[in-house]
Structures are given as C-alpha cells and as structure tokens.
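ok so I'm stuck.
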Amino acid sequence: MSGKYLVTGGAGYVGSVVAAHLLEAGHEVTVLDDLSTGFRAAVPAGAAFIEGRVQDAAKWLDPSYDAVLHFAASSQVGESVAKPEKYWDNNVAGSMALLAAMRDAGVRTIVFSSTAATYGEPVSTPITESDPTAPTSPYGATKLAVDHMITGECGAHGLAAVSLRYFNVAGAYESASGVTYGERHSPESHLIPLVLQVALGTRESISVYGEDYPTPDGTCVRDYIHVADLAQAHLRALEAATAGEHLICNLGNGNGFSVREVIETVRKVTGHPVPEVVAARRGGDPAVLVASAGTAHERLGWTPARAELADIVADAWAFARSEEKQA
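replied:
not stuck anymore, here's the structure
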C-alpha cells in the first residue's frame, strides 16, 4: 500500500537514499531540506522539494501525510563541541517544532535518524539498546534528547515512533533509474571516503589515530553498514511503527573492521597505494564500537544484505570516481 511521506534532510547522504527507496516502492515523497549541508542534485527525481528549515515544518505539513522520516540535523561531533548552541537549536529545537507540527496536522508516525553517539563510551560489546546512554559530545546529547522527547510524545499523544541508531554508514546506492547517491560531506570526516581520497590522489595520506589500542592490529574497530541496507531498515520501520510505542533499534553489521582493515581493503579494491601516517590517539575514541542488531532483526525483520567490507568500499569507490570526473 502506497503512502505519502515527508523526508526532512532528504537532500543529504542517508536521506536521499531513503527517499529514492521510498519512490521505488511506489510511495509519494516530499523532501524538506535547507541545503545547508545537503545538495539539491541529490533529491531524487519524482520527489517534491521544499527548500526550508525543519523549524518551519508547520508551513507545509498537513493531514495528507502518512508519516515523517526525520534526518535533518547537524551531525559533526567536533563542530558540536565548538558550537553546541548550533546543535541544540538545529537538532533539538528543530525536532520539537517538527513534533508540534505533526501533532497539529494529525500526522502520527515518525522514523527518526538517531545515532550510536547516544551511547558514548560502551560498557560492553556488542552494544545493545539496553546499554547505558552517556553521550560524550553535544551531538550525541542532542540526539538522545530528541529520543527522550519522542518517548514522551508517544506516551502522551499516541505517536508511533521508531528511532534507528546507526553506527558507521558507508557505500553508495545506484537507483533503478541509474542515478547514484553517495557521500559528499564538506568537510569530510568519515574514514572510508577519506581513504578513497588518498586513492584518488586528492589527499596525500591517511592518518591512523593510534595503533596501540587493545584490538588485533592495534587500531580502532568500527561497525560499517551499507547505506542501502540502512534505507531498507527505514522502510521496514514505517511498517513496524505502533501507536503509543517508541521502538529503538541499533543498526549495524554486527562485525567490526579496524582502521587498518579498511585501509587495506581500499588498496585491494582500488589497486592504488594508500600511504598512512600514524598520529596520536584522538580523545574520546573508544577502541571498539560494534552494534548488536538483534532488535532490528526481531522487530523489523531486518538483516544487512551487503555486509562485506569490500562490497561497501567498491560501491563508495565507484561513486567517488564518478564525482571526480564531474568535478
């Protein structure tokens, strides 16, 4: 059964891939994005587009919408430490305005783009949804605040909500129409696209921040999830959302890959040398961050289909090369 959905932040990396999946599934999609970090060209053909802030969602949200998928947020950990006020305004005040607009319009379902940063330093591995939440950055704190806000909305007003806590999203997605969606962050802070920049020759080397962690090769271990798998989880979350319940699901591969494994995989996939430079540890970097996606499997019927690191890197590499040719 087709629906009508508002996708906030749908001109960004994850939001655009989810919007493309919704359209391919036969749904009607409106993207709301202020283009502060997103790209107009990333909005899938077939989606209506509104350039605007989520704080003003009440101008456009009406009872014809079946649900909201909420991606609009500031998401750089380092920037959040330097400019916490920006994150409380964009992430918390924006989400509060969105929930109010939904309440007024009678739109009673939301899927929220949350984050593993809500957990902070893990107390155990793999991380489960019942583990303590103790974010170590304003970014993580603002996302956790929105989760608490949504829980209250579900209890008081019968909202049906699913929060999806991502770990490390990577890869790219080629839609049925042949358009490819991938990462275009500026500045870029994610490991896989940074290593690919070295392979492309636009960056001299990749920094390895610490090689003395208690891991098999001494470098940090992270959980990577393909962006197309992530998108499928959002569609399943729409189906699973239940009035009065706030379901929280971790999304991850369930397997961890070290920084050096990522670098070596990029070398194999691209055929290019990737010089690395060992640097000091960064403060607050846990040795291992890996998700337990058991709840997503049980409640959403979701299992990642593209779990191999080489496949994730290959898709990201194809997108990076296509972007380089167009530059």
